[in-house]
Amino acid sequence: MDKIQNMFNARLIAAGKHIEVSNQFKKLKTDQERIVFTLNLMQQYDIVPSATGMPKNAKESEKLREEGNKVFVTGILNNTICIDALKLYTKSIAFAPYPSEQLARSYANRSAVLFKLGLYSECIQDIDRALALNYPDNLRVKLYLRKTECLMIMGNHSVEDTLKEAQHWLEKMSINDTSRERFTAKLDVLHNKITQTKVNKNTKVKTEETPALPIIKSYNNEVPCASDAVAIKYNERYGRHIVATRKIHPGEIIAVEKPYALILVQENMQTHCSNCLRVCWANIPCNYCTYAMYCSEECRNIEWEKCHNIECVIFPAVLEYSIYNLDLCSIRLAVLALREAGGIEKLKTMVKEVDEHDDPRTKGFSQDGKLHSNRYIGVYSLVTNTEKRSVSDLFKRSFDTSFIVYFLATRTVIFGAKLPEDLSGLAKNNDVTFIGSLILRHQQIIPSNMHSFGETQGLEHLERGIAAMPFFSLINHGCDPNILRHSRPEHIVIYAMYPIEKGEQLLDNYGKHYAVMSKAQRQQKLFKQYYFICDCIPCQEDWPLYVELQSYQTLVKKPEDKAKIKKALKKFNMYVDLATIGNVPNRPYIIKDLLKMIQVLHDCAPMPCEEMSNVIETLKRVYDFNGNICEIPQIQK
Ligand SMILES: [Zn+2]
Ligand SMILES: [Zn+2]
Ligand SMILES: [Zn+2]
């Protein structure tokens, strides 16, 4: 997108209109006016969006499969290589036309990687998919043999039918086929194995266990997902913010919020489900586009009804302009809003009511006086920072949005029917520019409010998706936050980390923590993205980075306090070791103990303090074991 925008700017400069256009744009008052203006400008300077939409393509599928083969068949196998090959085969599956031999072959090749990685039930799924398609007859024996092996490893004794199928296809193979001998030998080995019924019972099939969601003791009257220990407040200085209505203890659950929208980041499409976001090593594709992939047909159907029947042609088209996840999210929000409202006119009424609402504290609340996380107005009412944005920032977003809305109008039936590819015609269409204005608004809301939806992979914390959260977005930033959050399959859970006094503000961290970033850097980055100057305590007192933090042994003067801390931290090193090897999910007493350490350090040591930072990091890690995990399958020797 940047490239095309640069080209556009160059045309403006060449025409000597750069400053004039910038001044005109600056005067525009609403997002809808900005979209009308940009569409007309594109028409005037002949910037017409075009994209192939990356359709299914047998050649591309074959190319990707061959790349997969190069990695998998000719490389020295290790985990990384297997995963790389798997991703290439999955991409090849996405590009293969449905139904086709290419699709069958890609499933078959991926089943070999899944077998190598010990993912036997996924391997069988892929084999069955290949066999149900036009997989070549002379290769079928190989798949039946692989399936037999999987079944045997999984402890399934009834493999006779599968072996019979293998025998059947072996007999059909040409006498001259050089693989025939090898398959015959393999078949004999497997035959002997079942007659001896020596089944490897040690291989257990893993199933993903999801720990139950934590329960909030007493719910909030205004915010259904939150505890009544907090309340939404508003003032000039902090805008909307969240404060404690009573003393909150470390570890208390503040909220369990289900995002209004949750979207998988592009980078995870080959390894996670677009709909439920769970890890899946044997994804199936959308039958129409080359982008979306799913863990199951059920998820594919759910997402189709929810939003993908619109996104299916849009995402691949806009992706050709190498756009960001935020652009995809801005489209998703518009589609969900439209579905929720039940039509464009109803959606117009819905947002008009929010625009006319004059109490800033309760903006986005529903008629029942509550802020619901599953209603669009909760997202729509989040801060946009429009008036603080530069002309170039707003223009860039307006330009991106105009491309998106052009594709929406001309390639989908979101406006009743596909509209003609005529920029000035679209600029005159109120429905088009209204939806454009919403997407442009999302483009401003997202960078200031969206949350990363995470997962743990080994010792790393990674981004799985992006979440739009009406309540959670109201929590302001602090460079030493007093809450922490972690992601569950469909929710984000917020805990109190420090003791929080009645009336005190809850603070989240927007990725700029005092321990890893200098004050100057934090302040600069926060201002650039969120348009505020942080005045939290670490900023006021200019706390040192983690490497310069002092131990409580230096900081604490009173011997009795020192002794208290020492006693509380007794088992800390052991917990660190357990957390590092990941051996904590079923030991809730560790969390309890860590929370107690926080309380004692909070009471007895001045902040910042090295031990507090260490305890917090360990606690986060322990919480994350109950959250989303992406376990990389290990190669089977
Ligand atoms: Zn799924
Ligand atoms: Zn699709
Ligand atoms: Zn700060």
Q: What sort of overall outline do the alpha carbons produce when their principal axes are compared?
A: globular
Mean of residue pLDDT values:
93
Q: What low-confidence regions span 5 or more consecutive residues with pLDDT below 50? A: 198-206
Work out the count of structural domains. 4
Helical coverage, percent range: 40-55%
Strands ordered across the widest β-sheet: 3-11-10
Q: How many strands appear in the DSSP assignment?
A: 12
Oligomer: single chain
Distance linking N and C termini? 45 Å
Structural class: mainly alpha
Strand content: 5-15%
Attached small molecules: zinc ion
Number of helices: 24
Largest sheet: 3 strands, antiparallel
Radius of gyration: 28 Å
Features:
mainly alpha; Serine Threonine Protein Phosphatase 5, Tetratricopeptide repeat; binds zinc ion; Beta-clip-like; histone deacetylase binding; three-stranded antiparallel sheet; 4 domains; single chain; 24 helices; cytoplasm
Could you characterize the architecture of this molecule?
The structure is a single chain. By secondary structure, the protein is mainly alpha-helical. It has 4 domains: 58-195, Tetratricopeptide repeat domain (Serine Threonine Protein Phosphatase 5, Tetratricopeptide repeat, Alpha Horseshoe), CATH 1.25.40.10; 212-259 and 469-511, Beta Complex (Beta-clip-like), CATH 2.170.270; 263-449, no CATH class; 551-637, no CATH class. 51% of the residues lie in helices and 9% in strands. The protein has 24 helices and 12 strands. The protein has helices at 2-14, 18-27, 31-44, 58-74, 79-95, 101-116, 120-132, 140-153, 160-172, 179-195, 297-319, 325-341, 344-356, 376-380, 391-411, 423-428, 430-449, 519-530, 537-541, 552-555, 559-568, 572-581, 588-604, 610-625, and strands at residues 230-235, 239-244, 253-257, 261-264, 284-285, 293-294, 451-457, 460-468, 476-477, 483-487, 492-496, 507-508. The strands form 5 sheets. Strands 3-11-10 form a 3-stranded antiparallel sheet, with helices on one face. The longest helix has 23 residues, at 297-319. The two termini are 45 Å apart. Residues 198-206 have low confidence and may be disordered.
